[in-house]
Write a structure and sequence with these properties.
Aconitase, Domain 2, 4-stranded mixed sheet, 17 helices, globular, disordered C terminus
């Protein structure tokens, strides 16, 4: 569907030999959205989403203007319609959604219609990772045996999913034994800048081609936010919301407050991302960030790898925020290359982000936030080590809780941070 483009911001972008269409934030700023270049990067992503989907009904000109008005008070009560670029599902919630699609095809056939018209309206990836059981262990062949046993015990399910992948458009299944959904999402599925074919009116002319826009998603796992470390805006929702998004329905949300976390310095040798995320969790729990976006900025980002950033993003549910977002920078491009993304995609990410003001450098002015917390990375210490040491010495529960991070310690020692460390810390 073509946007109404009230702010006349549709433009073309040439990358190598290929030309893309996009909705330019700088052009929108010149044409009435004053000051939006100072918005947090995460809100710029939401603004682009509204510009691209302006239809006068679910997204109005006033919704878009609310993003610029946000700068006056750094908060808003405006409800907006967010449409993610894609949906990520794991097997617990994903399989029932596919069953619903299959049932809709049966209903369409019974009514005399074309069953093949029933398809997801946005790309969907279903990663089988939550239900694989450990039957064999203790030897080098255990992993292979467990995967084989999974296929044997759930053969009917996998035949159904194989059929679904071949029958539905824009639907892919990642088989068991590949990795956790967050790791697969970070290392393989995420594009940082997404593309889709479409027709757009650019300065009075209809242009048909590939439309470029930020990669965004809704996932059916609370730790979907891990991918925020790769500058992909997304968070976890319930199965019903994800299925609605899969069928093209917008996700209704209030334009959020954004809490900035300014990082400076570098982590000392031996201090891990787990130590850092426990410190950040303590800070943000004390501040109170439930229902808010958190965005990391400042010179300290240059010393954090994408794996470190993914760890911070992954723990968003523990500090209560909707997301923990990082902007695109040189490290983002390096990670995309390291994980074998196509060079053409990496070139698009760089060109698009720079054209949109979404690319962070050391000279990038600080965005405007609802509130700002500051953290000097070189003052971070071995939080987890100290907790484990105190635990071994039998300190009382009350004395341990004085650190303010007891709950986060326990969460970090479980699957959550173990998952976040997988991408770069095997």
């Amino acid at each position: 569907m073509t946007s109404l483009d009230s702010f006349k911001c549709a433009r073309t972008l040439k990358v190598g030999t290929k030309t893309y269409v996009y909705y330019s934030l700088p052009a929108a700023e010149k044409n009435g959205l004053k000051g939006i270049s100072r918005l947090p990067f995460s809100l710029k992503v939401l603004l682009e989403n509204l510009l691209r989907h302006e239809d006068g009904r679910s997204v109005s000109k006033e919704d878009i203007q609310a993003c610029a008005q946000w700068l006056k008070t750094k908060t808003s009560e405006r409800e907006i319609a967010f449409r993610p670029a894609r949906v990520l599902m794991q097997d617990f919630t994903g399989v029932p959604a596919v069953v619903d699609l299959a049932a809709m095809r049966d209903a369409m056939k019974n009514l005399g219609g074309d069953a093949k018209r029933i398809n997801p309206l946005v790309p969907v990836d279903l990663v089988i990772d939550h239900s694989v059981a450990i039957t064999y262990f203790g030897d080098n062949s255990a992993f292979k045996k467990n995967v084989e046993e999974e296929y044997k015990q759930n053969e009917e399910r996998y035949r159904f999913l194989k059929w679904a992948q071949g029958s539905f458009e824009s639907f892919r299944v990642v088989p068991p034994g590949t990795g956790i959904c967050h790791q697969v999402n970070l290392e393989y599925l995420s594009q940082t800048v997404f593309t889709a074919k479409g027709a757009v009116n650019v300065e009075g002319k209809s242009v048909t081609g590939e439309i470029a826009y930020p990669d965004t998603l809704l996932g059916t796992d609370s730790h979907t936010t891990m991918v925020n470390g790769l500058s992909v805006l997304g968070w976890g929702v319930g199965g019903i919301e994800a299925e609605a998004a899969m069928l093209g329905q917008p996700y209704s949300m209030v334009l959020p407050e954004v809490i900035g976390v300014k990082l400076s310095g570098n982590l000392k040798e031996g201090v891990t991302a787990t130590d850092l995320v426990l410190t950040v969790t303590q800070m943000l729990r004390k501040r109170g960030v439930v229902g808010k976006f958190v965005e990391f900025f400042g010179p300290g980002l240059s010393g954090l790898t994408i794996a470190d950033r993914a760890t911070l993003g992954n723990m968003s549910p523990e500090y209560g925020a909707t997301c923990g977002f990082f902007p695109i920078d040189d490290d983002t491009l390096d990670y995309l290359r390291t994980t074998a993304r196509a060079e053409a995609r990496v070139a698009l990410v760089e060109a698009y982000a720079k054209a949109q003001g979404l690319y962070r450098t050391k000279n990038t002015p600080d965005p405007m936030f609802t509130d700002v917390l500051k953290l000097e990375l070189d003052r971070s210490h071995h939080v987890l080590h100290e907790y484990l040491k105190s635990d071994r010495h039998g300190r009382s529960r009350s004395s341990r809780s004085q650190c303010g991070c007891q709950g986060a310690h326990r969460e970090a020692m479980g699957q959550d941070v173990a998952c976040a460390r997988l991408p770069g810390r095997r």
